[in-house]
Amino acid sequence: MSKKVIVVVVLAVVLFLSVISVLIINGFPDLTYDWTVESKSVLKQYIKVLGFLSVMGLVYTFVEGLKKVKLEDQDAENEIKP
User: Fold this and answer.
1) Residues 6 or more apart from 45 whose CB is under 8 A from it?
2) 31 pLDDT band (50/70/90 cuts)?
3) Distances (CA, A) of 37 to 21, 24, 31, 32
């Protein structure tokens, strides 16, 4: 496996776990009945930030992949023209 594939898989897993964690905290209040409202809110915010950062990482790797493909296409066109 290449490093890029490993990074994409890790970022996707982090995103999946962050979404599931927030859904569990919201959907099952019995699990966190002894927590204060503020602590639940802070925990959810941190989880959401992790999810957002993983989305940004996925977008960045996607854009970098597009740039690489575009450069390869330009190189191929330049070899054909002369």
Assistant:
1) none
2) confident
3) 16, 15, 13, 10
Other CB atoms within 10 Å distance of the CB of residue 52: 12
Mind spelling out the 3-state secondary structure of 55-68? Answer: HHHHHHHHHHHHHH
Span 32-68, pLDDT tens digits: 889 899 999 999 999 999 999 999 999 999 998 888 7
Q: Is 51:15 a contact under the CB 8 Å cutoff?
A: yes
Place of tokens 């989880």: 47
CA distance 65 to 50: 23
Here the tokens at position 10 are 């890790």
